[in-house]
User: Fold this.
Amino acid sequence: MNSTVNLIDDDDDGIDWVAACEEIDVVFQNRNLPSTSSSSSSYVKPTSFVPRDDSVENKKRNGTTSKQSTLDKFVFKAVPRPPPPIPDVPKPVDEKVPRVEIDPEAAKTWIYPGLGKTLIAAVVMYNYFRWFPDGKIVFAAPSRPLVTQQIEACHNIVGIPQDLIIDMTGQITPSKRASFWKSKRVFFVTPQVLEKDIQYGRCLAKHLVCLVIDEAHRALGNYASSGAVRELMAVPVELRILALTATPGSKQQTIQQIFDNLRISTLEYRNESDEDVRKYVHNRKIELIQVPMGQDAVEINDKLLEVIRPHFLRLRGMQVLHDRDYKTLSPCELLNSREKFRQAPPQHISDIDCGVAEGLFGILLTLYHIRKLLSSHGIRPAHEMLEDKLKQGYFARYLSKNQDLFKAKLIMEQSLNRKALSPKLSKMLEVLLDHFSGFNVIVATSIGEEGLDIMEVDLVICFDANISPLRMIQRMGRTGRKHDGRVDILFLYEHVVTRWNIDLLVLTCEGPELKGYMRKQANSKTVGKHMRNGGRTSFHFHPSPRMVPHIYKPEVQYVELSIEHFIRSGKKVKDDDQRITPVLREKLTEAESNLIAKYFYPSGGIKWKPSLIAFPYFQTFPSRVHNVRHSYKTGLLIDVMQRLEGRSFGGDSKISPIKDEVSLEKDPGVGNVEKREIGEDLLFVDKFSNQNLEGKLLDSAASPRTETSETKEKPSVCAFPQQSPDGHSYYFGPDYISVDAFGNVLILSVPLLTFKEVSHPKHTSERNCLKQVSWHLNNVEVDKDLPVQAGALEDLITSQTRCPKDGSPRSICDSDALQEKGIHGIERVPQTPIKKGNLEDEDSITETPDSKIKALRFLPDEYCNESRDIELSPRLTNMIISGVVPESPVNIKGLSPGKEREYIVADPVSPVQFYNELPLKSSTPEKNDIVNIESNACGRNASASPINGAVQTPLLCKDNSASVRGCTSTSPILGKSESPFTDLTNESCSRNWCLSMGDQSESVKRTRKFKRLRKVGDDGKNENLQREKDSSLKPRASGRGRKKPNNDMVRAFIDEEAEASTDCDTSEDEEDDQNNNSHDSFIDDRTCPTIAATQSATSGTDMMAIYRRSLLSQSPMPRLPSGSDTLTTPNSMAPTPRTSERGSGSGKASFCLQTPLTDSTNQSKNSRDSKPSFRINHKTEAVPCSATSVSSKCEGDNVSKKRKLSFCTSSSVPTINLEQEFQRECEMVCDNDDDDNFFDSIDLDAFEAQATLLLKQKSELLTTQKQEVIMPAKPESPGFDFPSFDLGI
Amino acid sequence: MEVNSFDPDLIHSIFKLVWTRRALEREKNESADALDSEAGAGASKKSRPTSANGNALKLSCEFLRIFVTEAVQRAAAIAEAEDVSKIEATHLERILPQLLLDF
Assistant:
């Protein structure tokens, strides 16, 4: 077939049905329907054909296919054609291209190989497939490979759904076949299978509508296909049989037998020269190659002839043989003669002579056969034959003494000993090499003759030509399917005998072999003649009924068939090859090769191998996935890693609660804020008391912890650790608690926060409470103011939670005072902070920042107070309006440091703010500025300082996410910080981590969304600066604090803070750089120095927060008991931490402060940031501590130092303020860090969780994109932390 | 299954490379053992190279493609988070443990 081939249509079949095409859904059921068969199918067809040609176009309603109209037409037209004259000259013609279409039950189509039998079969099948929805169609092909070949070919031609197709061979068990017969519709089977299945009733014979028999010429005698047809006829079944063959037979008789066996009613015959086929047929050159027999063969042949001659003469003398040249006699002729002799022995021959003649015939036959072997197959087979014959029998007895034969045999042996190749073989090699170098060669026996459809076959070499024309044609049909092909037939010729001169292509042919070939070709011509005219005259056809009712007239429609790709059965994987995968042909770029060289061909000889343990921190939370989800095992890994890292960081369990809290906080947050505004002092007080109690409890708990952990950082640490876990929760709690307090009173958003906080962070709240309580206790009323302030500071420091608490107390106080005293309260509040600041300043006396802070505080305080009030009010208003509760805390936070104080005040003020709101109006401008500043600060705070964030969070509760986040973040930070410091902290850290993980992201986002985010960036810078400052110098810290305030409040406080601010600015930049560096370093380097730097930088914020916290804690601690006491008592605990922080490093003090601060911001940063922050905190704290407490603070981790520090701190409330400021700053930084962290680590989760929030925050986010950018860097810092941890580990 | 997967031939050659190496290692080990015990038993197994069914190979290609894609995407996420435009080995290391567990 020509690949290009076009197809045939259904028409041939259609022809039959043409007139009546009925859709035969019904057919089966209505079998009796007008299947009026054309009486004599043969007639019908011819007649129908002609008309059909025209009508063809009208064909099936179903619209069969049809690009193949050509074939259809050809099919039809062809039929009527007159048979071509038989060529006189024996051409190696591929003459038979008979295509027989037989109707009645069988449409038999004989098509010359390559002319499209399969195509016709496929189209016919497809039409029946469509016409008879329930009908079964069978395609019978003689061998399994052909079955699989045809199934694919048919599928590709017409696209019958593959799920309805099944190929069945003897390899499938009968039971399976039975089920297939029921479920499938189109079957490709071997005739044997078909016959057996019909016999045993497995195949639903009654449902068969179409039977296609490929290679129908085999249907002779008892061949399976004829048997199958007989079975079917016996049923009887109304079906169409389409028989296809390229070689119907060499004799009329055989063809008639096929007709009879298959009940053929119509014959369609085509050969290559028919016009309708010709254009699709590729040229096929037949080349006869004469190969001279070898010298030895010639000699042997001569000798054999010598042996033959006397016997031949003797037989001829008996007149048994015709007078002929004995040299050209063939075994067949001899056989025929013997047959004739046996049947009719000449009268004149006696019985004895008859026996002699019989013997002579036998001898001659053997000799001629040997000679034939010699000519066609070479010396070796001839020799073997001769040897065999000489061993026994008549031949041996009679000829064993024959000299000539002996000589011939001798020559054969000599030749064989020389191992000379048969001349034909060598010639074949030559041909192959000449024409086929570069081609693949299939060597096949006669099995390769039939049906193989290998399009690319260019050459067929027939080693022996003396075969039946049928097989010759089949062989030739293997080529020329796609391109022009060539058939080389190798003949051996005896140089002596060259009678045949064939002008075909080459070759002079040798006698016997070529002669036989030519004769057979001629014979096939005659057969072709018989078939030309549809065989009407020559053959008897069997009638068959039309299957399609006449009502239906199929019309030709041209339909584009979409054919699914044929999928082979699983065993054959060839289809894989069909998918051409893009091969990268481009060469690698230089950079790419360098990259490869870097990792795979290291010059050092050491291959780079990815480390699985390089980044344990990254294994504590699920990484972002692309398409592949995390597996259960990954979950286990994360779990384990969290626990392992948790040693230093914190428990996972906290996360969930925190998250819950966060969520809770969020919702209630707004309400809380309002509530806060409404916030009653009493409630706050209650809360405070509660908090205090809790805080005490916590402190007590913390104290033991601190004690345990004290070994490391000792008192402060211990206290903090306790606090840290608790603190985190408490911080949250405090915030919440404060909120709770508010909430209790008013159920403000704060309460929600408090609730959350309470549940989780109760510790923090307790701490705050404790602190506050302690403050309250210590400060009493006036003190209370101070405490309140301190609380505010603490709150600021501790983060939002504290702030709220403080704020609440403050607010309570303030509110009390304010409400009662009105503005006074506010003033008081600021004053108190100022006082605190003073105290702090006193404590920090040496520290310029403190003084500055104090001054700032003082100045700002007043302003702040007013502004705070104003701010608060606006905040509150804003908050209330926008629900951005956090801002107020932010403001507070902002106030806490320098301006922060104001902010702090504001925080406390928040309640105050409400109060203040009244005053706000009065100081609106300033307040507004402040507010703005505060807002900025808040934003910063929120983002930067966890404390702020925490405070904000409660306040922000409205912002829920932000606030929550902040809280969570802070708590984690604290926890983290603590964790590094103390085990206790670890828990908190873990929680924080978790919180930070989930919540942080949310919070971060939220914070980002909020102004805080924007601020956060600033805060981050500030924080950085602060950190740097803290780390480097206390003044810096103060400056940072100031700076932050400056940023927020800068304008108001600029003068005071100017110095600090400048420092801060520079420091901020530095910090930023540091942070970035740290991040980078974290990522890349894990070196201690880098870590330290990073820690300092990253922790700077944390440190600030820690400082603040520490200050807060310290302030309360000192207020409450002494540092020493602190260890045991919560108060003391707090101070100790402070001291520890200051002295030892961030340690405990930082914890207190840090936790809150860090919580909000750091949480987002998660363990990473928090860790760094912790470290940083420690360092920074130490620095700040030293700064604040100067001498005592200096890194003295020792409890004594801490105690001293605590004492100092306790004594110096201002230090606390400073710390608070620091904390605020830290918070700011932390927030920034957190945000960054959040963005980095938690973005996805946070987004998901906070999707709603995000929507709101998106605008903010946009604004804060810069911050976000920073954020990523921050995550790096965590990386550093991890490395550092690793190092530690 | 996407059309653009790895080239099966490439993957197959990689596989074969690994198989041969492993076979060599095994041989080495076994030869060491064989000295002690008997040498002939495992020869037939050893001599038979590991092979892959065509579909298995195709599946392997797809698997590897998914694996690599996931690795790159995850590492890219890390790199992006760090604001780096180029994925470095360090980024891969961070996601590697979980990635390996996910597959």
Remarks:
- Chain A touches chain B through 48 residues (CB under 8 Å).
- The mean pLDDT of chain A is 50.
- The radius of gyration of chain A is 52 Å.
